[in-house]
Amino acid sequence: MGHSHSIRENPTPVAGIALLAAAVGAITAMLITPKRGDELRRGIGKKIGKSKEDVVNKMQNKKDDVNNKMSEATGNIKSKMDDAADKSKDTIDKVKDKADR
Asked: Is residue 5 within a helix (H) or strand (E), and if so which, with residue range?
């Protein structure tokens, strides 16, 4: 007996199908519009260029987000390490004081 997954558990195939359908619809609309070949090619080229630019921008934004989060995490870790070092030093100093008595 196979295990079935609902769309809610794994929406990836639906999203892929939706993107494919949107791309096919856009290309079909461009091909059936009354434009000359050179106009059509320019239009397709512009759309591809814009899509590429959008992807590059989104990737740069994600990269910036990751870099910011890494910097924040690094700062938090450094701060916690400094706090732990200070507490360790304080504990060592207290032990030395007790040993000297």
From this structure: none
**Residue 37: closest CA among 25, 45, 48, 49:** 45
Q: Is 68 exposed, middle or buried (0-12, 13-18, 19+ CB in 10 A)?
A: exposed
Query: What are the per-10-residue average pLDDT scores of the chain (101 residues)?
Result: 53 73 80 71 76 83 91 94 93 87 73
Residue 33: partners with Cβ closer than 8 Å, 6 or more residues away: 40
Q: What is the pTM of this model?
A: 0.43
- Give exposure, 40-67, as e/b (b: 16+ Cβ within 10 Å): eeeeeeeeeeeeeeeeeeeeeeeeeeee
